[in-house]
Write a structure and sequence with these properties.
A: alpha+beta; Alpha-Beta Plaits; 4 strands; B: mainly alpha; 17 helices
């Protein structure tokens, strides 16, 4: 492959591994070596990889909780508003605020709010949809959705140096590709 | 890789107690990926598929024809009439929505319980759920009389200054079914995202690559993405579990909140949920047995899956048997002459054939599944699952029609007879269901590829 010399045109270096365990080990070593702007790519979730790369746990559970609370309280408010304020009907003197009858819809709205938060929260935090990504320029990266495991150290990492980083990755018994921007 | 001890012991147990594995040995990440994605990408459309699609599509056209006629003329084309104001359409609605319960149950509940065997069947069961709920949702709308005003079910600001009656289980039902449909779509689509990326990367031609690429939304399997993805998937599973129970409970309340003999019982909601699981698993089995044969999926949908599903059918079938016994006991113990008459009328009245056929299909036949030789006999399983599907349709018929046709005053009694349009809508909805399902098997991976890769990983660790 033609070496790309201008740093501005390089997204990073991509190392290819055969096994998830090798990727996990490489991630630990890269983190120990001080690299931070990097990510692992795998066809299956590799447990512990995210921590090994020094990524923070996601705030998704909190988002889902908030989504559920908003859905549930909005649902209950709608029922209360409709039955007590907007359109009160006296049915044989029964209470207008008949909360037991409001439970099923409140529950459904809670579930709906939480589910939307989980789905769209996951996409938003992951920055998806994202049709273009520099990694898709590397033909071998197609296998990241089949049977290969990748580690990409990005050029914007302060420690990144084309030759030294390449040597580091090759020292991990990986095939190394340059990723054009 | 860390597994919980519980998970490991479950896998080891399967190796040692002689039962079939959840995936045949010898598979690698590459082999499962290639085999499942090839079904969609490279395999030519088989003659069997075209044949099946032609039949399904014709039935769908019959459904549309009947619906057009219904809209033009009105609900009088059906046999539905007072006092049987709820008839075939509601029977079909409850039947389909019950079938639609297995998908979320398999995906969510078995996910939370760490049941590895769910992996090969969850995607298909989720798709089945969506299509069954689509069929189900049509029937109450068709039954409305003026279906073009269906949006009156929804609370929206309107010039009439009215709200729906939020104290009615029928409105709860509208919320429950639409929520269930929405959450099922989210759950299903989310499970598909990594597989769509796989298809995008495997596709040889430009058009499928672009389409799958758009649908995959740029998924690239990054560690940060997987971490959030797994969290979201687990949370959705946790959210969907009480949801699935709530949906059919609310369908049960549609009946329980009324004053009709045989409907007005507190045990309707749990009874309906058990019936839903029973029929849903039966439908998964009915569809999976021919599909695994047609697409050569025996390595992934093994005897273990079929046997486990048979056990679930047996367990929920026993709950149904308890429910039928409880109905009889309640009627006797209530001392209420109308309830007692309802039970006698079920067993001995003009529709006694449907009651006894229901007992035969749902109580007697599933008892065969106590025998391992039956649970491992594929033709027997297929026939039993078909019988259970019929039995569950009959059960809703018994509940709806027998209770309504003779309620309190004999002067209001009437014999109900369905018309040809009732049957056209029933059979046509099966056509709609099968059409969607066949398109799904042709265009999307019917087994979750990335979860199979995980399964390969886990089973390899054991060896």
């Amino acid at each position: 492959m033609q070496a790309i010399s201008k740093p501005g045109m390089l997204h990073g270096l991509l190392a290819e591994f055969e096994q998830g365990e090798s990727l996990l080990e490489a991630a630990r070593q890269a983190h120990a070596a001080g690299y931070r702007k990097m990510d692992g790519y795998s066809p299956i979730p590799v447990h512990g990889l995210s921590q090994a790369l020094g990524q923070k746990p996601s705030g998704l559970p909190l988002l889902v909780l908030i989504g559920g609370i908003i859905g549930g309280s909005a649902g209950y408010f709608m029922l209360y508003y409709a039955s007590v304020i907007s359109y009160p009907i006296n049915v044989g003197g029964r209470p207008l605020h008949s909360w037991p009858a409001f439970i099923p819809i409140t529950f459904e709205m809670t579930v709906l709010g939480a589910a939307f938060a989980a789905f769209f929260g996951m996409l938003a935090l992951n920055g998806l949809p994202r049709p273009y990504h520099p990694l898709f320029n590397v033909p071998a990266f197609n296998l990241a959705s089949r049977n290969r495991f990748f580690l990409c150290i990005e050029a914007r990492d302060p420690l990144f140096d084309l030759n030294r980083t390449r040597q580091f990755l090759e020292g991990l018994q990986a095939r190394v590709y340059e990723v054009p921007e | 890789m860390s597994h919980s001890p519980h998970e490991e012991s479950a896998l080891v147990a399967s190796e040692t107690d002689g039962s079939a594995p959840v995936i045949e040995p010898g598979h690698t990440y590459a082999s499962v990926t290639d085999q499942i994605s090839a079904i969609v990408l490279t395999r030519p459309t088989s003659r069997g598929w075209v044949f099946g699609f032609a039949i399904s599509f014709s039935l769908l056209m019959a459904f549309l024809y009947a619906t057009a006629y219904l809209f033009a003329v009105g609900v009088g084309i059906w046999g539905t009439t007072v006092p049987v104001g709820w008839a075939f359409p509601i029977v079909n609605f409850v039947w389909w929505i019950g079938i639609g319960h297995a998908g979320t149950l398999i995906s969510a509940v078995l996910l939370l319980l760490h049941q590895e065997w769910r992996t090969s069947i969850n995607r298909f069961a989720e798709a089945m759920t969506l299509f069954a709920v689509s069929c189900a949702g049509l029937f109450p709308l068709l039954h409305l009389g003026r279906p073009w005003l269906f949006y009156w079910l929804l609370p929206y600001p309107n010039t009439m200054d009215l709200w729906p009656n939020f104290r009615s289980p029928l409105i709860w039902d509208a919320f429950a079914v639409t929520t269930y449909f929405t959450v099922s779509i989210l759950f299903w689509y989310m499970g598909l995202i990594p597989d769509l990326a796989t298809l995008r990367d495997r596709a040889k031609n430009r058009l499928p690559r672009v389409i799958y690429g758009i649908m995959a939304m740029g998924w690239r399997g990054s560690a940060a993405h997987w971490q959030r993805y797994e969290t979201a998937y687990l949370l959705l599973g946790g959210i969907a579990t009480p949801l699935v129970v709530s949906v059919h409970s609310i369908v049960g309340m549609d009946f329980a909140a009324s004053l009709i003999p045989g409907w007005h019982t507190t045990f309707s909601p749990p009874f309906f949920v058990a019936g839903a699981i029973f029929s849903g698993f039966a439908m998964v089995m009915t569809l999976m047995i021919p599909l695994r044969w047609a697409y050569g999926l025996q390595d992934f949908v093994t005897m273990r899956h079929l046997e486990n599903m048979a056990k679930v059918i047996l367990a929920t079938g026993s709950m149904m048997a308890y429910g039928y016994a409880a109905e009889v006991f309640f009627a006797y113990y209530s001392g209420n002459q109308y309830e007692r008459f309802m039970v006698l009328n079920r067993a001995l009245g003009p529709y006694a054939w449907s009651y006894w056929a229901l007992i035969a299909c749902n109580v007697a036949v599933p008892q065969l599944l106590w025998f391992q030789s039956v649970r491992r006999n594929i033709p027997a399983l297929f026939i039993i699952s078909l019988i259970v599907n019929v039995g569950m349709w009959l059960e809703r018929f018994v509940i709806v029609v027998i209770s309504l046709h003779r309620d309190y005053l004999p002067s209001a009694w009437r014999i109900y007879a369905p018309t040809v349009w009732d049957f056209t809508h029933l059979v046509g909805s099966i056509g709609l269901f099968m059409t969607l399902l066949l398109l799904f098997t042709r265009l999307l991976p019917m087994i979750s590829i990335f979860e199979l890769r995980e399964l390969v990983h886990k089973t390899r660790d054991e060896v």
